[in-house]
Design brief:
The chain contains 18 helices and 20 strands. The chain is of the alpha+beta class. Helix 4 crosses helix 12.
Length: 682
């Protein structure tokens, strides 16, 4: 390097030096240098009251976070979506005046976006993560957005901590690793030092965080909202989406392999299902509480880290959503869709959940950066189906051509129009909740129990599900470099379950917890996937087959599988037509090179001859992996030798025999079970 070059480099370093800041060991301030006495709680009207607009610290912190990344979403960047329709089962007039929940004969258009939370747009879809489940209802009263997740609780209790949470989850800033993963120091350091996250972390380390499909994934509104009827009577409400196919998951090893084999696995599954006419269906459920029952539970119903156990507050199924049309353009629709929990209709209102209160500010602010200005509502995917009129004008991306000279309220030149609509005639009016309290940065004492429901979740799991949680903790903490952070997490989760903490501690070289343990014995069967619907519908079965198979018998079994709603796909060593006896032919959809066992829900080994020398080896490999992932495996007598070579014989979920109707029935039942966890316990 020349002296001149070195001089320029040194000059540049000196120029940059004034911008290099190390925050460690310093006092927290605003961007204006103001030292803050509190960074844990947003400013509220009373400990359980709403967040106040004058909270300049929250607004600065959230505004900066909302604008950190452009134009990709800061969270939920990796998403896929579809159109559909919603029908209510019966009028909900008793509880809400929301128009789309009144008439069972009316079909309301919907748009649903599913997403992972942590990863970038280029990340894989089967990573361990919470999933977004955001639904836009295009109602005649305006757009209503139910913006939820596939987990009913969240990591934090107050929105002011959301930037901190996401900073901890995202790739570490000094090396931009790891992508779409929480198995690293900063996330677990956040967990250990923000113990309100305990319940959400239990869900995130469970099978719920690696769903089999968007179509087999539950959805939750997370927050407590209000239903308000035409008499002004209110009920607290929580929203649920219940998939008709049941709630099913991958296993962790399988999820990791799919991320490499097909990073688009979930969107491909959704796209293909809709294209084939296998429309995903979800029932909308609500949990309702009278206002006078707000304080009857041993948890605060406004705490977003708590759920309402279904055994205590039953879920009422009130309607069904069917996704029946794929998008025409992913960017124009999926990426430009702008959701907001503040997009409501008359009859739906908010509670003082401090996380929800912050979201009501954050989402609009986020769209301003991501979609370039205030007119994101005019993009086709976001436009309501009903007319809209107001005095908002101009701005980036304006599409409306407003006529006339008046653009203000009140006015006389246009007879004071557009004019407000009285509440009695359908105008939106906020529920008149009494608010009384001092302006404080604090949190209600009723929010301070962080472990009871985390323990309830653990108690509700089956033995295989508990083992999966232990394995998830062991994997994630095994990736953490800081021994101190590992130990802090072990000591923290000893408060959830001592056996869980001690088992993980032993596996990661941490000290066994000295205290902890929980006396909570309550469980909620609704939380275990063991108790979900078991259906064979739309399950993909890889059929391994060579030439000269038994034509009539195999064709008969395949027909019976299809009749049961199963989708068999032929795998062999070459593409093209494969010939069986009696002139039967089947088209090969996959070769061993283009497919993999992890991409199927089950394997049906038929046998046959005429393949390459490696045919048998590849077939055995498929079976071994399916067996290791607890999947159903069916085999004809001819293919039985492949199972024997894989040690996959005489185990739960294995069906062997001649290709008959009885064989097909047993195999369909095995496929419907999803996984055969008894193998894990033997």
């Amino acid at each position: 390097m020349s002296k001149e070059s070195r001089g320029n480099e040194n000059s540049k370093n000196e120029q940059l030096e004034q911008f290099r800041v190390k925050d460690e060991g310093e006092k927290l301030t605003t961007n204006q240098g103001l030292k803050m006495a509190e960074d844990e709680f947003s400013l509220k009207a009373g400990e359980r009251g709403p967040t106040l607009m004058e909270d300049f610290h929250f607004r600065e912190k959230m505004t900066h976070f909302d604008h950190e990344r452009i134009p990709e979403r800061a969270v939920h960047a990796r998403g896929f979506a579809a159109h559909g329709e919603f029908e209510v089962y019966q009028s909900m007039k008793k509880y809400t005046k929301a128009g789309f929940l009144q008439d069972p004969s009316v079909k309301t258009p919907v748009f649903v976006r599913f997403s992972t939370v942590a990863g970038s747009r280029g990340s894989a879809e089967t990573v361990r993560d919470a999933r977004g489940f955001a639904t836009k209802f295009y109602t005649q009263e305006g757009n209503y957005d139910l913006v939820g997740n596939n987990i009913p609780v969240f990591f934090i209790q107050d929105a002011i901590k959301f930037p901190d949470l996401v900073h901890a989850i995202k790739p570490e800033p000094h090396n931009e690793m790891p992508q779409a993963a929480t198995a690293h120091d900063t996330f677990w350091d956040f967990v250990a030092n923000n113990q309100e996250s305990a319940h959400m972390v239990m869900w995130a380390k469970s099978d719920r965080a690696i769903p089999r499909s968007f179509r087999m994934m539950e959805g939750f509104g997370v927050h407590t909202f209000r239903f308000v009827n035409d008499k002004g009577e209110a009920h607290f409400v929580k929203f649920h989406w219940k998939p008709v196919l049941g709630v099913h998951s991958l296993v962790w090893d399988e999820a990791q392999k799919i991320a490499g084999k097909d990073p688009d696995f979930h969107r491909r599954d959704l796209w293909e299902s809709i294209e084939q006419g296998n429309y995903p269906e979800y029932e909308l459920g609500v949990q309702l509480l009278k206002e006078e029952d707000e304080f009857k539970f041993d948890f605060d119903i406004l705490d977003p880290t708590k759920l309402w156990p279904e055994e205590d507050v039953p879920v009422m199924l009130i309607g069904k959503m069917t996704l029946n049309r794929n998008v025409d353009n992913v960017f124009a629709e999926t990426e430009q869709a702008a959701f907001h929990p503040g997009h409501v209709v008359p009859g739906i209102d908010f509670s003082n959940d401090p996380l929800l209160q912050g979201r009501l500010f954050s989402y609009t602010d986020t769209q301003l950066t991501r979609l370039g200005g205030p007119n994101f509502h005019e993009l086709p995917i976001n436009r309501p189906v009903c007319p809209f009129h107001n005095n908002q004008r101009d701005g980036f991306g304006r599409q409306t051509i407003n006529r006339g000279q008046v653009s203000y309220h009140k006015n006389s030149l246009a007879a004071n129009t557009p004019a407000p609509t009285p509440e009695a005639e359908g105008g939106y009016a906020h529920y008149q909740e009494k608010v009384d309290g001092r302006k404080v940065r604090a949190r209600s004492e009723s929010f301070k129990d962080h472990f009871s429901q985390a323990t309830m979740f653990w108690n509700s799991m089956s033995e295989p599900e508990k083992q999966h949680i232990i394995q998830a903790f062991t994997f994630e903490l095994g990736k953490v470099n800081s021994k101190s952070v590992r130990q802090q997490v072990i000591d923290m989760f000893a408060n959830v379950n001592l056996e869980l903490a001690a088992t993980v501690a032993d596996a990661i070289g941490a000290d066994a917890p000295q205290g902890g343990g929980s006396k909570i014995t309550k469980s909620s069967p609704a939380l275990s996937q063991v108790n979900t619907a078991k259906k064979p519908d739309t399950r993909k079965v890889g059929v391994i087959i060579g030439h000269h198979y038994e034509g009539d018998d195999v064709t008969s079994v395949l027909d019976k599988l299809k009749k049961a709603g199963i989708q068999p796909e032929i795998i062999s060593d070459k593409l093209g037509m494969i010939k069986g006896s009696k002139g039967k032919e089947l088209e090969v959809k996959h070769t061993f090179l283009t497919a993999d066992s992890v991409l199927f829900d089950a394997i049906y080994a038929v046998g046959g001859s005429g393949g390459s020398k490696s045919f048998e080896k590849e077939a055995i490999s498929f079976i071994e992996e399916a067996f290791a992932h607890y999947k159903p495996i069916g085999a004809t007598e001819e293919a039985k030798q492949w199972l024997e070579a894989s040690d996959a014989i005489d185990s739960p979920g294995i069906v062997v025999g001649k290709a008959t109707g009885e064989f097909a029935k047993k195999f369909v039942d095995a496929v419907a079970a999803h996984r055969h966890w008894d193998r894990q316990l033997t």
